[in-house]
């Protein structure tokens, strides 16, 4: 009995193309084995298995992606299984996504969280393969304004709001001015440059308030608008942080 071969080798032979082009077809989601799409060039196929090129197949360069996720409270935000990364599946894609991107396994290669968020908090996360985005949000993150809505209980004394706006030192970080305002009688809105985890809760406690829920609604110039909890979408080419 003949041995199985790598799918890339089989595709290259069947299509009379280079091994590199065969891998691009496979990783681009254009190859089916026995009618099922396979995206791994190293997948082993037996001589009797049917390998076919799917309709619309084309050779295209792999474009790195950036993904926006609305993390529900209670989920970890990291790159590990069991975290908000697991939300990035076709069934959770925001209805009406206009990116034109096809969901492919290769978009998880090197995909990393660029915007940490406390487990107890909900709101906007950014996962990216794009170096310029990672540089902006990680290496230069201290310059990127983020916006949060904090549900609180308690009352502020006269002058407390102005004191908070001047900023507070926290875990070795110097006090930096921030925008703090009441959204309504139970919700405070914060706009500040990439806060350390736990900072907003510390600010609330310092002012005699109890933080009951926290939601990040904007990172830089990108709001979370339109993303329901648990949904995700691709960053559009014209969107900038």
Automatic annotation (TrEMBL):
GO terms for biological process: enzyme-directed rRNA pseudouridine synthesis. It catalyses: uridine(35) in tRNA(Tyr) = pseudouridine(35) in tRNA(Tyr); uridine(2604) in 23S rRNA = pseudouridine(2604) in 23S rRNA. SMART domains: S4. Residues 5-64 form the RNA-binding S4 domain. GO terms for molecular function: 23S rRNA pseudouridine(2604) synthase activity; RNA binding. Keywords: Isomerase, RNA-binding. Its EC number is 5.4.99.21. The keyword Iron does not apply. This is Dual-specificity RNA pseudouridine synthase RluF. The lineage of its organism: Bacteria, Pseudomonadati, Pseudomonadota, Betaproteobacteria, Burkholderiales.
